[in-house]
Every structure is written in C-alpha cells, then in structure tokens.
Design a protein that fits this description.
mainly alpha, Fumarase C, Chain B, domain 1, Fumarase C, Chain A, domain 2, Ribonucleotide Reductase Protein R1, domain 1, 3 domains, two-stranded antiparallel sheet, two-stranded parallel sheet, 61% helix
C-alpha cells in the first residue's frame, strides 16, 4: 500500500515526516468524485484511441465505480503514504483489479489530472453559488414588493440624507448580487475548459481525442497550450475573487442589519431563528449571523490573498507550491455558500418597522435639497438657493422644528421666493415621488424596476 507509484527512480524510502509534510490527502480527498469522473472519461478516450482494449476499458470503468462506492460508504482507508486523492484511487484500483489498473494513468500526469479535478469541482461550485444567489435575490424581491410604499431615510456618511423607498434600498442589493451572478457566470466560462491531455507540461504522445474527452465531461472546449494548462490557476483566482466581492456585498448588508436592528434605529426585527442570546444578559438578542458574515468576509479576503501570493512567483510549469491552492479555494467556496444560504432564509424572514422608518424619514431635514430645488423653480440660481435652504435648516435646528413645520413668514426670512405651495412641495411622499428619473426612488420607477428585476431573475433560473 505504501509503495510509491513514482518510486522507480529512488533507492531509498521517504522519511515519514516528509510523507506527512507533503501529503495533501486530508484536503484533496473531497475531490474523489471529480477525480474518478475524469479517470472514467480518460479510460474511454484511451479505448477510443486503441491504447486500451474495450474489455480493459470496461473493467477499469467498473473498478473506478467500485472505488467511488467504497469511498462514499466511509470504509475507504486514507494514508499520508499515498500523498493525494489520485494515488489513493489508483492504488485501490490496482488492489481490486490487478495489473490492468496500472494502465489507467497512460497518457496523463497528475499535473493535468489535478487541474482537471479542480475545474470539475469549481464548475459544480459555481453552479451551486449561482443557485444560492438566485435564492437571495428572490428573497430581496419579495421584501421589495412588500415595501413599495414604505418610506425610509437614505444615508450618506451614515447621516440622514434624503427619503427613499425601502424597496429602492433593497433593490440596490439586488443589483449588487446580480453583478455577482454575472461574475460567476463569466468565471464558469473560463472554468469550463478541459486541460486533460496536456500531461506533465508538453502534451501526451498518445493519439487521444481531447475534444472527445471534453464532450464526455461536458466541457465547452480544451486548453490551447499544454504549459499554460497545467500551471494556470486563473480560473481558481476568478472564483475566489468573485467570492470575495460577493462576501463584501453580504457584509455591507450585514452591517446595515446590525445597525437597523439596534434599539437606536429600530428599523427591522431579526427573526429569532437567526439570532442568539447572551449568557449573562437575559434581554439580549444578538445579530450573530450578520456579525459572523462580516467576520467571514475577511477570511475570504485572506483566501484570495493566499492564492494570489501562492501564484505570483512561480515559473512555468507545475510547481509543488500549487498543492496549496485547494485550501483557499475550498474555504472560499464553503464560506460563501454557507453565508448565501443563511442570508437568503434570514432576508425572507425580516420584519421591517414601517412606522419607525416613516418617522425617521420625516425627521432630520431630509427635504432640504428639495427646498433648494423649489427655489430654483422660482428662478433662484442653485448656489444661492442652496445657501438659502441651508439658512432655513439652521433656523429650524435652532427652533427644534422641521422645515415643513415652519410658518411661511419664517421660511421667507431665509427664502424670500417661497410661496404657499412650498409646504406641499416639501412633504416626504412628494419628495420621494419627484425622483422619477431612470434609477430614481419614485414609486412608479421602483415598481418598474421591481418588475424588470423579477424578469431578469426568472431568465436566470
């Protein structure tokens, strides 16, 4: 079992510490299904090329299926002595089938084999991520549809700025996650290229039909350069980069939920199922899911940095450093998928405090820009109108009253052009609905954006 498949060159055995240090089986054993899938396609390609007899190919395919079942049953024995998943599968296949199993590696190297496995794995992961992003976007659309009439304060610098519809705010996140979907679809196109047939670095000498193998495995094409094929991890960087950006978007939403669920904001109530309590303070309801998502975002950033650093100084072609590529890739995939799954369910269960949101939108002089715009409509140059509105705000702050609560004569002290119609102009709902440009927060525009977003999401499913 411990005999090395590459051991012909060596007179002595490998130190046990070296075996442990160089082993990757603890990490890459999760690639077993992809490794076996690739080997089955490779065997069929060898048979098609006449390198294997048909009966040999049938025997090998059946044996590979048996190894897969054994791994899935939990009875498979893993050992550092066999280094990686490729060696484990081939070694067990040899135990089951005898000498014919030693033909399975004809015309390939572990270099193109691992590149294939990682691409097959990431293809599945990208598709899973796209499905989870769809779930989260669907939850955002449902909440948006429920809050087309809910007004809230919009913020810049975390200061109340202008009133917007809650649906408009939530649809901003829909746009972010839609861009994430685009990135992962673009990533999928680069992942879905087959490297098998590149062998160690120079290509195989056997007359294999790479396009045939690609068809068996569902790849859209084959790699064009054997050196690049075995040393490229751009497709993995694409994935981890897209994962880091998606986590950043989740973290921004998480931050707002942490703020909004506090007593100081009281904009949203988080469901009990997605919060925890305090071991000391009985009243606490902590937004742990959101907080952990912020923390895990930094972890995925670390995965991206690790992978970029790993690749930055490597000469062509394969180097053993690249064994370390799977840890950040697996971690980024696992972390992103878990965060997306929990956020989709939590978002669907959020309960917004409409009254508190409306009250906050009516306070803090959020209609000050509209007062300036009103004055512009009366012929006042914008810079002068801006200054006049600012003086009106200062007066309101001094008196403890909003702009709409001032009398006309008080307003005219700062804004001589103001007329009786100014108060209707300054009403919060009017302020919102005037922003009817494309992309604006007017209810009509947001309703249209919501309908368009639903069509976009449906087209992705």
């Amino acid at each position: 079992m411990s005999e090395k498949m590459w051991g012909g060159r060596f007179a002595g055995g490998t130190d046990a510490l070296v075996e442990a240090f160089t082993s990757s089986i603890a990490v890459d054993k999760r690639l077993y299904a992809h490794d076996i899938e690739g080997s089955v396609a490779h065997v069929k390609t060898l048979a098609r090329a006449g390198v294997l007899a048909e009966e040999e190919a049938k025997t090998l395919v059946a044996g590979l299926g048996a190894v897969k079942k054994e791994i899935e049953s939990g009875n498979f024995v893993f050992t550092d002595a066999l280094e990686d998943i490729h060696m484990h599968v081939e070694s067990r296949l040899t135990e089951l089938l005898g000498p014919v199993a030693k033909k399975v590696h004809t015309g390939r190297s572990r270099n193109d084999q691992v590149a294939l496995d990682l691409r097959l794995y990431l293809r599945d992961e990208v598709r899973a991520v796209l499905g989870l992003l769809g779930d989260l976007k669907g939850a955002l659309l449902t909440q948006s549809a429920d809050h087309l009439d809910t007004v809230m304060p919009g913020y810049t610098h975390l200061q109340r700025a202008q009133p917007v519809l809650l649906a408009h705010h939530l649809l901003a996140y829909f746009e972010m996650f839609s861009r994430d979907s685009e990135r992962f679809r673009e990533c999928l196109a680069r992942v879905n290229v087959m490297p098998l047939g590149s062998a160690a670095l120079a290509g195989t000498t056997f007359p294999v039909d790479r396009a045939f193998t690609a068809g068996l495995l569902g790849f859209s094409g084959v790699t064009e350069n054997s050196l690049d094929a075995v040393s490229d991890r751009d497709f993995a960087l694409d994935f981890v980069s897209a994962a880091a950006i998606a986590m950043m978007h989740l973290s921004r939403l998480a931050e707002e939920l942490v703020l909004w669920s506090s007593a100081e904001f009281n904009f949203v109530r988080l469901p009990d199922a997605f919060t925890t309590g305090s071991s000391l303070m009985p009243q606490k309801k902590n937004p742990d899911v959101a907080e952990l998502t912020r923390g895990k975002t930094g972890r995925v950033y670390g995965d991206l940095t690790a992978l970029l650093t790993l690749m930055k100084g490597l000469p062509l072609a394969y180097n053993r450093d690249m064994q370390e590529d799977k840890i950040p890739v697996f971690d980024a995939a696992d972390t992103l998928k878990s965060a997306l799954a929990v956020f989709a369910r939590m978002t669907a269960a959020l309960s917004f405090n409409r009254e508190r949101l409306a009250e906050a939108a009516d306070r803090g002089y959020l209609n000050a820009t509209d007062l300036a715009d009103y004055l512009v409509g009366k012929g006042v140059p914008f810079r002068e109108a801006h200054s006049m509105a600012g003086r009106a705000v200062a007066y309101g702050v001094e008196k403890g009253r909003e702009l709409g609560d001032l009398t006309l004569s008080e307003l005219r002290e700062s804004c001589p052009a103001a007329g009786e119609d100014v108060f209707a102009f300054l009403e919060t709902r009017a302020v919102v609905d005037r922003r009817a440009c494309i992309g604006g927060t007017a209810r009509e525009r947001v309703a249209g954006a919501l309908a368009a977003a639903r069509k976009r999401l449906d087209s992705e499913l």
